[in-house]
Design goal:
Helix 4 packs parallel to helix 6. The chain is of the alpha+beta class and about 525 residues long. It folds into two domains: about 80 residues; about 425 residues, Methylamine Dehydrogenase, Chain H. Pfam families: F-box-like.
Length: about 525
Amino acid sequence: MNRVANGRSNPFHVKRSGIAIESTTSDITDLPHEVFLLVIYHLSPTESVLCRRVSRTWRVVFTSDDVSWNLMRWHFPRVREMRNAAGDLDRSAWAHIFPKVARRYFYLRSATPRVTETISQWQRNGFRPIGDWNRWLEWNANLASLQVRNLNWCLDDGLLIYRDDVDEYVAYDLETSRRFSVPFNTSGKIVRRLRLAHGILVIEWYRPEENSIPYITSCTEHFATAFDARRSTEAESAGLAGSWVIQFRSEWRLHHDPFRYSDRFFSAHTATHYALYLWQEDGAPPGEVLVEQLTIWDIKYASPYRPSEDLGPAQPGPKIIKTFMKDDLEFLNIRQGRKPMFHNIWLDEANVYIHDESHRWLTGPQAPINPPRCHYVRATGIPFSGIGPRWFDECGADGNVHMNFCPRAGSAAQRGPADTYRFGNTWPGWAPCWRHEEFPYLTVTDMVDAQACVRIMARKCFGMETLSSYVLPSISFGAEADLDGVYDHEVRFKDELLGQLVASGHIMGDERWVVGENQNGDITIMRF
C-alpha cells in the first residue's frame, strides 16, 4: 500500500483546516487533521471520490476544499486546473474540481473516451490540400505513405476551426460547446491550408481561373489571410464563459508569380512572423528546380489592406523581412532539389527550423538515391533576425532493425520517470526523433500536452502481419510509477476506436480531449 508516486508532494507539508476535531476518535475523520491527511495520502483518486459515499460525516470531510486541494496536489500536480489556479488557491472550488479531474484521468489511463462527439464537415469542392512528395514507403509489396495530407480543420487552445456542412468556417469552443462565425468568405475560393497558433488563424487560399484545367495547367495567385482569435474579456466578465472574438487582421500575397497545382509550399507562423518554403519544379531544366526559396514575413501589425481585392497601389501591411534564395539554401544545406527530404517547418521568435527525414524503404521518383540505413531525421535552425550560426541536429545513423538506434527515444518501456525525451524536448531545434522512437514502427502523429505530461500517439508498421496499417494509439504518462517502480503507462485504445480517430493521420488536443478524423471524413472529438 506504500505507493510513492514520482512528482507527488510531501504529505507532511499540509494545509490546515478549520474542521472541528472532537476529543474522541471513533472514526478516521476524528483523527487530528495532519494524521488524517497522512492516511488518505495512500488512497487512489477513485477511492478518495468513493469515500464521499460512506457517510454524511465522510462526505463533509472529503468534500472540504482543504482535503480536495491536498488530493489534487498529491495526485494531479500538473493538470491545467492546478496551473491556472496557482495564484488563487483559496478561492477555487476544489471539492467540485477534484472529482472531475479524477474522472478525466480514469478515462485517460484506461484509453477510453468518456464521450465521443462527431461533427460533419464540408467535403465537397472548396478545399485542395498541398500534394505529397512523389515518394512512398514500400516493403515486400506493401505500400504506405510517409507524409499525411493537410486537414480542412485546426485546433489550438480548445478552439476548433472547421468548415461546416453549409460551406462556412466556424469556431467551436470545445469546453462550452459554443460556436462563433469566422469572417472568411469562401465563395469563389479554394483553401489550401489553415492553421491556428498563438491566437492567430491563417488561411492560405487561391481563386481559381475560369475555364482552367484543374490539377494540370492552372496557374493561380495564392494569398494568406490572417485573423485574430482571442477570448472575449467583456463577455466573460458578464458571465458568458468561452466567448471568442474572431476578426480580420491582415492579408498578403504568398509569391509574386502564380502557383501551379504541382508546386509544394510549406508554412508556419507565430504571433509576429510567418514563414513560407516554396518549391517549384514545372518548367525547370533537367536536374534543376525552377524556384526554391524560404521567405519570412513580419505580421505583428494589423492592416486593413487586402491585395486579393484592392487592385490599386500596395498599402502598408505584412512585409517581407528575409528571403533565402537557392544559393543561400544550398549553403545552409537545406536545399531540397529533385530528391526532397522536407517534412515540416517551424518558427520561434527569431529562428526558422526545417525538419527533414528519409527512410530506408522509400521508393518513387523523388525517393533518395542512397537511402539511409534505417530512418534518418534532422533539424536545421536558421536565424532570420540578425546574423548567427546555423543550428544542426540529426539522428538515425546507428543501430539496426533488431534494436532501437535512437539514443534519445529508446524503448517506450525503458524511459525515465518524467519521459523527458518527448515532454521536455518540445523545442523545434531538436531532430524529430519521436518519428522513429519504436523503429521499425513509424509514429505517424501524436498529441503532446507537455505541461500535463500527457501524450497520445499513433504508430504503424506495414511489414508486420499482426498489425494493421496503424498501430493502435496509446497514452503515455510520466507522472507516476506503479507498485514496482516501472514507468510504463502506455495503454492501447480499442480496435474500433482506431478508425474513428486517426483515419486522416492527424490528432490534436490536450489532456481534456483528443480530436481526429474518422474514415468518413467527419471530425471526431473524444472527451476524457
